[in-house]
Amino acid sequence: MSPREPSPPAYSLGRLHRNLVLYVLVLLLALGGLLQAEEAGLSRRWLGPLFLFASVMMYAAVGIWCRTTDPHEYYVAGRRIPAMYNGMATAADWMSAASFISLAGALYLQGFSGMPGAPGGMAYLMGWTGGFCLIALLVVPYLRSLELHTVPDYFQLRYGGRWPRRIAAMSAVLCSFVYVVAQIYGIGLIASRLTGVQFEIGILLGLGGVLLCSFLGGMRAITWTQVAQYVILLLAFLIPVSWLAYKQLGNPLAPLVYGQQLSKITALEKELSASPGEQSVQAAYRRRAAEYRAKLADVEAALIAERTEARDRVRLLKATGANALEVAEAQRDLQNLPANASAAREQWAKLIVDSEQRARPLGGLPPHGQAFAGDPQGTPTERAQFDTSRRNFLALTLCLMLGTVGLPHLVTRFYTASSVAQARSSVAWALFFIGILYVSAPALAVMVKFEVMSGLTGIRYESLPAWIVQWGRVDPSLISVRDINGDGIVQFGEIQLGADIVMLATPEIGGLPYVVSGLVAAGGLAAALSTADALLLTLSSALVRDLYAQDVSDRATPEQRVVLSKFALLAMAVLAAVVAMFKPSDILSLVTASFSLAASALVPAMVAGIFWSGATPLGAVAGMLTGLGTTVFYMVGHSSWFLAWSGRAAGLDWWGILPVAGGVFGVAAGLAALVVASWLERALGQTGTVRDVG
């Protein structure tokens, strides 16, 4: 156990409460002023950049005010954060871009319990919430009592030697880097929408806010920045969902009344499934799938013909004065054409799958209230779909629960509490603050779907709102509304929304003032920034404190380590921004993958070290390597380059489990390896000193 550090003066709760109330009042007054300014004619061109600049500068001011080079303050905020405020900071840390931006979108697209290829939005709510219960029971009290600074510190203390710490540090780097790429992707998405600049420039604009928050003050600055960010994201989430509930049902308490809309959606789904217009859209997608199959017969000739046709269509639309939406779609089609025959073959194969999916009723979306895909009483195929869907739901829920226990940036959050009791209270407060938003997410998904079904569906294409074109310019994968059947009327099957757009576009879908759209974007920015700050601190600490200072230069003073950590944080932020510019995947998939990696690499050895005195250093090393290796192998086994290299027609398929839930195999394999290796080491009499911290 590390020697007890001197305790800085405790914060005055009365002063903190007064500052919080004053901060909320100033925010509300500012929002009211902006609403009046918008009504008076202030242009949207100014409102978006104003929200981005004001929020980032506010966070930067907190970061600069809390700057420090004291290692105790930089790594664990002096261990003096009161439980309530630690809970708020944890909630902001937790409500990442995935929870704020993508969770409602996952519920919109997948319903409560999913469809083939998607495990269901409710799995995220259950898994993440259940994970907090596990972390309170299994990890927080024990690790906080040791007065450590990082998660790898625990592995060195419990197991001794260098390899447990090294592997834990490298695992922390891997899962945190995947996670932070998703956050920076979200930052770029929001910044580009608010300012109108390109996605890549938006990433760089938002990245400045991340660095100003975390570079100078470490965990102390991050903590108080996250408290400020939580208030913004709470307002940004609750205002639009309450507005929609009041607009549709006359009651702003959305979680209590949205069930009425769910029954209406069920009726609308049946009506749309029987609609001739929807059925013509399904037929058009089936024809499109057949056309792509025909193109695969002669890829070179088909690519040349398609490029010529796309150019001619753009010229024709411009010459005939077509509307902006049609021209933008045609230009996007031209830009998105494959660069060569190999890329065309891969892209068209994916488009066949996508077209076949969208050729199903409701554009391929499952009925919103459906329990699982398939039918337990149906045909053999439907029964198999039901079993696979239920299996993936349970696997993902387990991965998210265990990943919560193992995520280094979240575990470190509770090191900042002043005592074990305060750490437990911090978990309770975090659950409360997270629960406020999590009970509203299903309501938001239901009411947005009702708004789309009843408001967008059935209108003519020339009446489409301008925000659809504007979001399509940010990223074509976010939203697509195309007249597939050529009748000039928007059908539900012709509306394609990405999971990352549903929350951000909610104010515009519901007809709210643009100020609320800016607030929602600022809330998403706050969610992404708060998590990115903590992740970058975890990355830099693992690289400098747990690897460099231990294995390369153990003579560095604590102050020198802090300085090196700051530069490592800067380097990792730039590297993550570069990766995010390539848009490797959607936000939710990246975040889910990081949970699987954390669960398989760290949790078996962490929990066994606490509750089983027989766990040995060799067992920990074997468990971490086996768990992480199994999960990475299963995830990589689904990648396109792996399939091309191996010559396989399809990815690995173990009991139908999706790759993002591959951690379920890693946890099982890692636990088995840990037990066997520990037993062998003890049996051979080679066990080193084992410290039982349980």
Structural key phrases:
disordered C terminus; mainly alpha; 73% helix; 29 helices; globular; two-stranded antiparallel ribbon; single chain; 694 residues
The rounded distance between the terminal residues' Cα atoms is: 13 Å
Number of strands: 2
Structural class label: mainly alpha
Globally, the shape reads globular
Mean pLDDT: 82
The description of the largest β-sheet is: 2 strands, antiparallel
User: How large is the share of residues in beta strands?
Assistant: under 5%
Biggest sheet, spatial arrangement of strands: 1-2
**Gyration radius over CA:** 26 Å
Number of helices: 29
**Quaternary structure type:** single chain
Low-confidence regions: 687-694
Helix content: over 70%
Please outline what is shown here.
By secondary structure, the protein is mainly α.
Provide a descriptive summary of the structure in words:
By secondary structure, this protein is mainly α. Helices cover 73% and strands 1% of the residues. Strands 1-2 form a two-stranded antiparallel sheet. The chain starts with 12 loop residues before the first helix and ends in an 11-residue tail after the last helix. Mean pLDDT is 82; it is low at 687-694.
